[in-house]
Amino acid sequence: MISWRKHYKKGLIAIGLLLSTSASIYGQDGDPKNGEKLFKANCTACHALDKQVVGPALKGVVDRLKTEQGLDTDWLHKWIKDNKALRASGDKYANEVFEKFNKTEMQVFPNLADKDIDDILAYTTNPPVEEPKADPAATTATDTANAAPANNTTSSIVIISLIAIAGLLVWILVKLRQLVKLGQSEELTGLNETRVKSFSEIYEKYHYIGKGLLAVLAILATYGIWNWIMWIGVYKGYKPEQPIYFSHKIHAGENKIDCQLCHSSAKYGKVSEIPSMNVCMNCHRTISEYNGKYIEPGKDKAFYDGEIQKIYAATGWDAEKQQYTGKTTPVEWTRIHNMPDFVYFNHSQHVVAGEQAIINSFNKKNPDNKIDVVCKACHGKIDTMNVVQMANDFTMGWCIECHRTTEIDMNNGYNKEYFKNLHEKLKKQYPKDGGKITVDAIGGLECGKCHY
């Protein structure tokens, strides 16, 4: 009897240990939904569930470590919180992982509580199943069925309209036949003999009117040729296709990426330059597929994923091995904005010195279409464009008009010091709007400012 109780007690203890170990192994003691949020906030820069990125794929990592290395979740807690300390302690597997992934140091997360880590591990073990999306084909079929009565009504209206048009044509033919018979009468025959029958006779009779019309036509032709010449090189609305599709709406609009993160030279150089592919790889080294909510009409996720693969092909990036192959392919971008060689334009002068003045002037002139970034004053609402286009004329007159209407902030440190001896003189010389000074007052219309 005592022996049976002893074995029963041991059995309960073993079952309890097995259940607790199993729960720990398979990550079921955490909340997968909360783990998903934590995973996306802390881990997705370097990890994915189903594939290697900077670090290994994490789906089933708890079970994999237990099976392959005999390690439990305590080791994962130590690794996630401070992998550097774990490696420094001489842990064999921690150092093997470090060597395997090119000695890329994982960020430490001392801020994550044990419960947070358990939630993340639960998500990697049993990720929540996404709700199935509505089938577009089924939706279309339903819409088509609902639209069937309306289509029948429309067909009836079209048939009635065609019958009415046919009747009208028959009536017109009858009237034309009557007119032909009338033209064969003796009265009309006599009138036809008195009519002018050649162009020369008409010209002799109405030569003053003819010369006047020719003069008007010559003036209109001259104006047309002049207008055509003046608009050579003006390509407002020009939006060519590029070798790699790049949506500014997704990057600058949906994801709020600062313009100067990619076009960094616009702030410190004459030209803004086209970002190199290495700039793209700063993000796309870990973003190998598109998972955004916004999808442009006519496009789908597969399309965007294919464009990301073009970036990898151009840079020679092997996403599976997470390393460069050395085989690169230049990307032949089609330039959109291109000033003539005889025009000098400095981006930094406008982006830095004139930034606030340009924004204030634009918003004052366009109260219903205000901007928050100086780039939009010239390039338009770039964060709403899927395909970039030339938003303005970029003619000499367009630039001059901006210089005449953009007020300078004479109170900023540079202008206040540089123009301190001229400030009062300029106020008297340009008394418009209570002494406000615009760009043209400080040389903004001098030819040598923009032309060599």
From TrEMBL:
Any one GO molecular function term: electron transfer activity
Keyword Transmembrane: yes
Residues spanning the signal sequence: 1-27
Region entry Disordered, spans: 125-146
Lineage: Bacteria, Pseudomonadati, Bacteroidota, Flavobacteriia, Flavobacteriales
Compositional bias of kind Low complexity: 135-146
Protein name: Cytochrome c2
Keywords for this protein: Heme, Iron, Membrane, Metal-binding, Signal, Transmembrane, Transmembrane helix
Entry-linked SUPFAM superfamilies: Cytochrome c, Multiheme cytochromes
Transmembrane segments: 156-174, 213-234
Top-level lineage group: Bacteria
Keyword DNA repair attributed: no
Stretches assigned to the Cytochrome c domain: 30-128
